[in-house]
Amino acid sequence: MNRILCILCACLLLAAPSFAASEAAQENETVVTVVKAPEQTHAERPPCFPDPAADYIPLPEGENLALGKPVISGAHTDVYVDKNVNDGKTDTYWESKGFPAEITFDLQGTYPVSTVAVCLNPSSIWEPRIQEIAVLFSLDGESFTEAAPAEKYQFDAATGNRIRIDFDTVEAAFVRLVFTLNSSSRTGGAQAAEICVY
Ligand SMILES: [Ca+2]
Q: What is the pTM of this model?
């Protein structure tokens, strides 16, 4: 009888550590929750972050009449050709070779026009600068009339690196911008990533 009791006690003593280890493992078990990320198709900004575009100079609503239309200019710098100026992308730009720099849009039709917007790349890498710009319009592409006289406009990434020129509505088939100054020390010509006509 004593022998049986001894064997039973020995079995209990051997089993005790494994029971203790099992309880410790349960206490230390890491709970992993798998969360499926939502499908993301574009850059998203959490609501707690300020909207960088909140202070951008607003563009008019409606069709940009210059987008993709034939454009004519003089000499350009390097690869920065005039067709970059109305391709709908602010990361491509036109840069003239010297001043004055004319760039003319054929709207391929006659439209009431009252605003021209000139945009640079909105990135702050493009430091603030002033460009002097006049706007002219024409019905035949040969005789042009001034819609907005030459004025200096401040480009600043804080306001979207864009400016807008508003004037009394004219009927226009062609719109021409004449640049006469760019204060940036990095270029000797006019620069525009997009020119929009409304
Ligand atoms: Ca562009």
A: 0.76
